[in-house]
Q: What sequence folds into this?
């Protein structure tokens, strides 16, 4: 009897032992199955670590690049003398007064400003007038710096303002003088005063290819036509003798403005010479400063992405043609300005950067990276060639010192 009981207990113990071992084996198998999952997580973590490491390396490279750019900006910004801010929309034109004390500017925001440049302040003070229901597209100072003329976009009118400056530290006063309507049918892109302020010339930026000469009172004196598809801009030489108009055509004509020696009034406008060697239309033009009265030393042009410098100190009366002195190898030139006083420096806008180049070699003397956000649209030197004013789509006017001075 006891033997049977012992056998039964042994069997039951064996069954219980088997069940217990089965329960232990299940977690072991589960742990075995989970092991690859843990390894996979480890691999993912290592990939993340690698990505983080790469990101850190890229970040360090960017910081190094940024530091290098910052150093470059510091080295080039030494030529940035002043920044004129105040316009709320892009500037359409800028002009230097012959006396060197003022900069005139007009903008798409309808404002016209006269900035007074003082040595005692890095921030020029300005006077402002607002054009109602219109805006100015061009501006120019008279030869004696006493007047500023603006050309209006929609009405095609010319408005004259007197510039009064009583105290050296006060902002100049702008007094509206007179207005007359022109006969242009397109946007006036350029306006210039002739000799002794006896006449003005207006050139459109568009399909109205007529070039008109006016008295300050609005009388039309002369009219010529480039007879091209479109005019881009027009420039009058510093001595008022030559007029050059950039058009869609490759050849650029230069007219001679002949005035009465006693009265200074314009009498004749005749074609004097032609600038050749361009393969496309010309976008911008700049005259060099005359070496002595009635002789302009050269003219620079921008076409097909290149800039060219011509010697026009020639005897065009006997058929002598302008001499091409230099053709740049760049393909991104957009605007140009020759330093006055027969200096060797030419300012060239290249893809948003400002290059100061030697007009005899074409090599850059100094390069300003990102002179304006969105690129440089207008450039003009002061009379002495010591300061260059530039503007772009960023609404600012920057004044740069001449790197060669």
A:
């Amino acid at each position: 009897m006891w033997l049977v009981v012992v056998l039964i207990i042994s069997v039951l113990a064996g069954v219980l032992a088997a069940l217990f071992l089965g329960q232990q084996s299940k977690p072991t198998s589960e742990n075995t199955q989970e092991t690859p999952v843990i390894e996979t997580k480890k691999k993912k973590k290592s990939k993340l670590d690698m990505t983080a490491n790469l990101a850190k390396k890229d970040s360090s490279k960017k910081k190094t690049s940024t530091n290098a750019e910052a150093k470059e900006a510091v080295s080039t910004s030494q030529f940035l003398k002043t920044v004129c801010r105040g316009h709320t929309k892009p500037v359409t034109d800028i002009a230097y007064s012959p006396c060197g004390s003022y900069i005139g500017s007009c903008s798409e925001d309808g404002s016209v400003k006269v900035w007074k440049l003082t040595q005692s302040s890095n921030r020029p003070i300005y006077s402002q007038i607002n054009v109602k229901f219109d805006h100015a597209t061009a501006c120019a100072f008279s030869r004696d710096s006493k007047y500023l003329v603006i050309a209006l976009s929609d009405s095609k009118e010319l408005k004259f303002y007197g510039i009064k400056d009583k105290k050296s530290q006060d902002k100049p006063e702008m007094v509206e003088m007179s207005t007359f309507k022109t006969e242009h049918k397109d946007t006036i892109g350029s306006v210039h005063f002739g000799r002794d302020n006896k006449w003005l010339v207006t050139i459109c930026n568009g399909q109205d290819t007529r070039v008109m000469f006016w008295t300050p009172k609005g009388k039309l004196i002369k009219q010529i036509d480039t007879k091209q598809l479109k005019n881009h801009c027009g420039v009058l030489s510093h001595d008022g003798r030559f007029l050059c108009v950039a058009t869609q055509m490759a050849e650029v004509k230069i007219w001679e403005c002949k005035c009465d020696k006693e009265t200074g009034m314009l009498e004749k406008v005749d074609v004097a010479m032609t600038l050749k060697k361009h393969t496309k239309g010309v976008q911008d033009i700049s005259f060099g400063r005359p070496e002595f009265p009635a002789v302009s030393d050269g003219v620079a042009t921008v076409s097909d992405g290149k800039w060219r410098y011509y010697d026009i100190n020639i005897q065009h009366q006997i058929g002598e043609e302008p001499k091409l002195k230099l053709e740049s190898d760049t393909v991104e030139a957009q605007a140009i300005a020759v330093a006055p006083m027969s200096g060797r420096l030419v300012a060239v806008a290249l893809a948003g950067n400002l290059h100061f180049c030697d007009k005899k070699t074409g090599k850059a003397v100094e390069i300003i990276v990102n002179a304006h956000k969105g690129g440089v649209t207008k450039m003009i030197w002061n009379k002495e060639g010591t300061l260059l004013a530039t503007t772009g789509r960023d609404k600012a006017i920057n004044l740069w010192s001449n790197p060669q001075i």
Observations:
- Residues 2-76 form the longest helix (75 residues).
- The two ends are 127 Å apart (CA to CA).
- Residues 2-7, 19-52, 54-76 have pLDDT under 50 and may be disordered.
